[in-house]
Amino acid sequence: MKVQILGTGCPRCKKLEAHARKAIEELGVDAEIEKVQDIKEITKFGVMMTPALAIDGKVKSSGEIAPPEKIKKWLQEAQER
Question: Which residues are catalytic?
Answer without folding.
Answer: 10, 13
